[in-house]
Batch of 2 targets.
Target 1
Amino acid sequence: MNALPATPAAPARGALSFTHRFVPATDPAAAPLLLLHGTGGDENDLIPLGRMLSPGAALLSPRGRISEGGMPRFFRRLAEGVFDEEDVVRRAHELADFIGEARTAYGLAAPVAVGFSNGANIAAAMLMLRPDVLSGAALLRAMVPLANPPAGSLPGTPVLMLSGAADPIVPASNAARLAAQLNERGARVEHRVLPGGHGLTPTDMTAMRDWLARTGAAAA
Ligand code: MLT
């Protein structure tokens, strides 16, 4: 198995610990969204998605601090789908600390994460390791980030998992295991398997908007 090269990304710019974009709210009733990009993305990628999902919500969009051959990520991996779990733990805590900093700096409520692929996986790790940081999470094409996460409690935390029926990166059994881990911790998990692969489709958008409206995850 090939180990993929991973080196720390350039140090964060600005006063907060992650390079990021912040879009202030125009609707104070809308919960802030934490946008977490996939491998090779950056802090700009999911801003349009966030605007579409919850117009008027504050958007907080950090860039992953790992660089894999120049591609930003949120934690190291040893190969596709094989994670460096020690690094997952370290990076999940770093990101959780950044969210605390950003909440203070920008006066935000606990955000709802919207994570795609690697961004969904770090959001899942944060739910396991720092259950108080997120008020909910939409995990798009997520897989298990920690084989044996510590016991934790996520009582009633709304979590939407959207998996692709023909996803070549995330086996169905792996996504189901993540849903089970979250359910065991008390999260209110809705796991849907949509037609399609690892990429997002308009069906994902509809499902996320519907979930935000139904669960009240978008209401602060
Ligand atoms: C990961 O590395 O987090 C997953 O394999 C998804 C990806 O980013 O390709």
Target 2
Amino acid sequence: MALIAPSVLSADFLNLSRDIQMINESEADWFHLDVMDGRFVPNISFGLPVIAAIKREAKKTLDVHLMIEEPGKFAEEFKKAGADILSVHIEACPHLHRNLQQIKSLGMKTGVAINPHTPVQHMFDVLHETDVVCMMSVNPGFGGQKFIQYTIEKIKMLKAEIIRRGLSTLIEIDGGVTLDNAREIVEAGADVLVAGNTVFSTENPAHTIAALKKMTS
Ligand code: DX5
Ligand code: ZN
């Protein structure tokens, strides 16, 4: 059974507390929190104060996905705000190994996020330092986009490498996950499904989370 990580990017920000409680009480496993800087990606979302506020109510793991340049400058601040997992983009980190050591030394789980055009093999040399690979299945920056089908092949390649090396790294798929493709994604080897639009565009988000969970069992 896969872990489900609803993306708060698609929540109702005027009713954030209500949506956080919904996730707390649902079958969801993690909160997925997308931080965008308007430079690494062509959009700006939310940052440290919002995450710190969410932390006060959230009863589950905070999975923070940094879509920002120079993430190392802010790693400590995100730890203070309450991040449990901190993912940085391989494309934004010329010294990725150093970034991962920093995240680990701050007491967080390490995440490496990887864009659709980046060969997954590019992160194999730090795979043993990585708790979660956040594999983008859309171009990062916006919720509600269409799943890029080639991601399925990348999941299979990554899964084979994780198994070959006997690692416990989790594969998280981020972008365009729906009730229609969830099973195929998990069958390819994904361990965690991020879902924004699929969850929050429905009348009963908690039911949709439960349905996603069931699809993957
Ligand atoms: C995209 C973000 C995703 C996004 C996913 O840049 O990283 O986490 O919220 O949204 P959906 O599930 O709507 O594609
Ligand atoms: Zn994300």
